[in-house]
Amino acid sequence: MSNLREDGLRVFRQMLPGALPDSDDDVEFGGFAPELMEIGVENVFGRLWTREGLSRRDRSLVTLGILIALRATEEMNAHFRIARQNGLTEDELAEVIYHASGYAGFPAAATARNIAAEALGEK
Fold this sequence. Notes:
Helix content is 67%, strand content 0%. Helix 1 (4-15) packs across helix 2 and helix 3 (56-70) packs antiparallel against helix 4. The chain is mainly α. The radius of gyration is 15 Å and the shape is globular. It folds into two domains: 4-48, no CATH class; 56-119, Up-down Bundle (AhpD-like), CATH 1.20.1290.10. The longest helix is centred in the middle third of the chain and has 15 residues, at 56-70. It has six helices and no strands. It comes from Mycolicibacterium pallens. InterPro entries: 4CMD/NDH-1_regulator (IPR052512), AhpD-like (IPR029032), CMD-like (IPR003779). This is Carboxymuconolactone decarboxylase family protein. Residues 34-118 form the Carboxymuconolactone decarboxylase-like domain.
């Protein structure tokens, strides 16, 4: 069985290059409720993002749609960058936002547009 922490850190580094130290031993999440990041690394990146059922590109599309609908602004910035790393173009990311406006509402889509512009360095 694979090590979920190692897998999660590997995937995280691949999708957000430079966000974590290169050595797994150097990755320690401090501050308040530090185990939350460990849970995310193991369960989200180590367990979900490594599954074979969808490509990383497709997972990015699904993730962005959910985050836009939830108005999860703190997570969106990183996930717009992850989506670019996973092969989505700026035109495709714009289409995600346009499409979300019909299902999640214009205010949620407008917020996502602002966050995407910042994440992609266009603001």
